[in-house]
Structures
1.
Amino acid sequence: MKKNLAEFIGTFWLVLGGCGSAVLAAAFPEVGIGLAGVSLAFGLTVLTIVYSLGHISGAHLNPAVTFGLWAGGRFSGKEILPYVISQILGAIAAAAVLYIIATGREGAEIGGFAANGYGEHSPGGYGLVAAVVTEFVMTFMFLIVILGATDSKAPQGFAGVAIGLALTLIHLISIPVTNTSVNPARSISQALFVGDWAISQLWLFILMPVLGAMAAGAVYKYLGSK
């Protein structure tokens, strides 16, 4: 239960910090943080949770990470479901808090609510194929960094920095394409509040991150084998 609660809290922080920065601060008149600020916010949430709760649960904060670590031989299969449920519930709780805040001024509407999308719902108008490739490749590389940075042979104590910066870089690259998912829990939580198109496109942001992560787990397992 301690591990599951840590995953709940950690994923809550990731969605509140990352999506919160996108919904509340990205386009704030004259002093908004923009895409670079949102990218940094996502990276900072991971970095801070890795060092605060990582020693309890491993700070997956993401179902794709959990599946990727399992595919890489770093995580027990029997723990996957409790972790994923905790992550999704934490993400939904954060989206609920963000919804309350975002609608807390007169005439406010949530708009896209930082939900992930492709086609007409892509920030840059990118289509399905671009979205599929982006989510698969970005999650693949994210897991390669995670597996490498947390390897027993890697320099110790710096994994949080590498992982946080990797997520920042991923967002810098891919926000214009899909609003950047690489995390099914983050996608599910925002889509539930947007409904409609966000729900109909959600399959991509569940399937591609998980496939990309598992592919990375298999590749890194091979790279690390003797």
2.
Amino acid sequence: MKSVKSVLKKLFKLILNTIPRPILIRLSYLARPVLAYCLKGNNFTDPIDGKSFKSFLPYGYGEQRHNVLSPSTLSLERHRLLWLYLMNETDFFSAEKKVLHFAPEQCFLKRFKDLKNLDYTTTDLLSPIADVKADICNLPFKDEEFDIILCNHVLEHIPNDTKAMRELYRVMKVGGMGIFQIPQDLNREKTFEDNSITDKKERAKLFGQYDHVRVYGRDYFDKLRSIGFKVEAVDYTATLSAEAIKKFCLAKGEIIPIVYK
């Protein structure tokens, strides 16, 4: 069993680090049904689609995390945590909202598009599944256009994240809400970035992925506040039982940054 897990980890790491993201997105649509069929079981459940499996898949560009990638939706810990938060703590699935979603994740895309209460727009510079191709630092949207903005695991890719945050603030309605998840090291007081490091392996080692430009520290929340947002750092796993965290394969203590304008 250990040898199979080891092979899977090496294979997924190779795929993630050698195949460009837009191609990976297209190929994953073909892989999902096969993976879901092969891993059917009852040990772990993806709350997004309710399907259960004997195990989830490994994932990681640098150090691989075991049992984190859902075979059916391809959701990671952060996606499943966000789904549970939106479902249980907000009116996202019932109230009429105009939503802007950056770099739309496959696990959410069709489900959010199918919600009749949402006026739902997706955007990204490179993603083949986004509606609007746009630079987050220069958005083609009006001031105060959106009630909700989802921008998750995007800002760590953006060299000028201050300009990106200002654009997010500009297009959000007064009274609007955003969820801006990022990879964050809560042991760091200050965000770390070093543009002189260009080697992909070294960047993956230091920043978590070869295409990340920083590791955010606890000062991320203060930076959002400096733009004008009101910020709540929500540890939603603290409200869940240990059994639920294990069943849904969540990362205990992961913070959801909720912002308001």
3.
Amino acid sequence: MSDHPALASEIPSNEHLSLRVMPLPADVNPSGDVFGGWIMAMVDVAGAIPAIRRASSRVVTVAVNSFVFKQPVSVGDVVSFYAEVSSVGRSSITVDVHVFAERNPADPIVVKVTEARLTYVAVDRDGNKRVVGDEGASAAVAGCAEPPSDKELVLRVVPFPADLNPAGDVFGGWIMSMVDIAGAVPAIRQARSKVATVAVDSFVFRQPVSVGDVVSFYAEIVHVGNTSVTVDVEVFARRNPENPVVVKVTEAKLTYVAIDELRAKHPIGAE
């Protein structure tokens, strides 16, 4: 399959951005592409996010109504999952998910890679079906921290039980690795090449992160040198679907160096 650039009109607004992730080498199949099961898992998570908000409770997946792979996904692609509720029943919520990949930093392109429709059922704490409430019941997010308007939303992920530390919170190393990836996204765009992390100039944990939080990473380039790019990253977590709240959990500053295919430093051209 060949790449077909996505038209600007095809890409949904960030209002519907459920997840934005970067697959790693552990996610590839024997052919060298990202494993289709990884994409399916991420689509399921992405679709559950608006379903949980609409239900104001846990949800379980009950059907994959359609699923189409349009393009393969590669390691290093920035993969965005846009999800929107398409219908609501008594206890069910159907969600459309559209997936786009940004790739090739030397000559950036965005392509549509997947589209799917999934149905979820709202459940209570005991796993029993429950009635979905009126629309707008969970729209307000009380006591929330304000995400930065001057930074780009570069990653949005959901941690899983495998990411926990012995104390039951999400492992700080998981947060640090995601911050490193988040900071690399604008650095790669600026360098139009691979980058390597050379310094963590500051890193502050403000709140613990829990399994099921929707964790958003906002990044902004603050300095560009001859071969280096310094990026500020702020991290926010949305939690507690029954009474939603957004809190700032981490902030950091990292420096990256542009490297060529031989892993040697190279100058960064003007934007």
